[in-house]
Specification:
single chain, alpha+beta, 4-stranded antiparallel β-sheet, 28% strand
Amino acid sequence: MKKINYKDNLNLNFAVIIFILSLLFLIGTINNGNLIFKNTSVAGINLSGKNKTEAKKTLQDAVKNYEGFKFGDKTILPQEAGVNFDVESTLNKVYFYGRNSSLPVGLWERMAANFTKRNYELETKIDEKQLSSFLSKKTDDYNTASEDYSLAWDNGLKIKPEIPGKRLLITDTKEQMLENARFLKDDQALKTETVTTNKSVKDLESANLFKQTESSITVVLDSRKWEINPATLAEWIIFENSTQNAGLSSYIWPFLKPTSFKLSLDDNKINIFLEKIAKEVNITPQNAMLTIVDGKATVFAPSRDGYMVDVADGNSKIKDAFIADDRTASLKVNKKPAEVREDNLNNLGIKELIATGTSNFVGSPSNRVHNVKNGASKFSGLIIDPGQIFSFNKLVGAVDASTGYVEGLVIKDFKTVPEYGGGLCQVSTTMFRTALNAGLPIIERYPHAYPVQYYSPVGTDSTVYDPNPDLKFKNDTDAHILIQYNVTGTILKFEFYGTKTAKTVKFSGNEDGSAAVDRAENLKPTIFDQDKKGKGSLTALWWRFIYEGNKLVRQDKFYSAYDSPDKYPH
């Protein structure tokens, strides 16, 4: 009898199985052609039996008709949040199911297609930067702070309950948005949580807190008194809490509620109260006023020290009085010496008059005159440190009714219109000329849009408007510079006191320095392009020459192009 070779039979059987599987794979391929297998969906949309072209159109229509993400009562398009659909990649993934190059895998997938339903997600492309920016903005829109329990005075002290806040959960919201996009869901994407303080009204009512608010606090300074009544105290009160063994307990059980409460006062509200008192009682230090006697700076009006309410100390004393039987808080004042005094003139280097500058505002209406005088006063007694860059806009401060200005004409947005501070450029122009005459480096300066009658000679003006344009120059001397001003008739004059240098300053409308003068106010600039841009338009050109002895050490060119006034109607 011939011996059976089991190994050969096994190989034969395996070959037959492979043949049958291949035949089934081939038959399945022929039968399905280029169609998507049955039981196939994308985002719940049935694509079974469709070819790629049909499936692509079906998905594109679905994406086009997708309304977007629900955010509260609003709807946001995916593209606004940086979420874009990739239909092509989705189709490739779906189509190649059952067409895997591996025969066993492909056959298994085809068999499974007959018995199991598959719902694929839509592939998406995420712009993470845009999505993060979107969520950050939504955080600002939807986050609301909780309002703590507070006290109110209504025929006695009453507890006003807490108003919970709301916080956007960024990670949860992002995940829901992407889930909605992948399956074209219209579920609410906005995920928030309520923010509370974990205090209960019962806890507060059971605590003996109200005794501190039953009587007024008296704030005292010398013979003056200010009352903080119970109603005001109720508005200032904040709650502070503590937890027994807080460090260990909060670590083991982070949601442990506070077990004790105390009342405290809001620092900011106390400080606002004290700052109002300070405005009443503070004495501003006054620098010594100087004049020139025998060529030297001499004091003709002595300095005066200032006295300022110590707000931090007052805050502490009001809090002490709040919890004490003695309901009195005594204010402390601190002495603030003047910057320029009889005893420190030489130390500051303020020895002599180093420069003056003038301008004439003749013909100005009364409101403009008021603004000129008010603006100039802001610089009285101002000290410019060695090396400091003077910024007109920074040092003049706010320009509005609260700082003493009235409306006057300004050039703005191709119009001449009334605004607070109109006329302040008379001050900046005069300051510019003083800095020029002192030989100080001009860092920044701009001419007006058109020639203005108050700024003769033309080309020596300086326009300012917060925050720009600005006038800037540098104190390049080794000494401090003190600014003083005076108004005589219609002449505004600034005086710079400091220590003279070896510099000599000249001005000329000619580049070669011919016909030079000693002061900017007296120069005759070169004028050209008159009426080229309309009636009254022109360009002014002049130079400043700075010498040390007979040596020219610096030459500055000042070019000012002016438009026609007709283009800036009143």
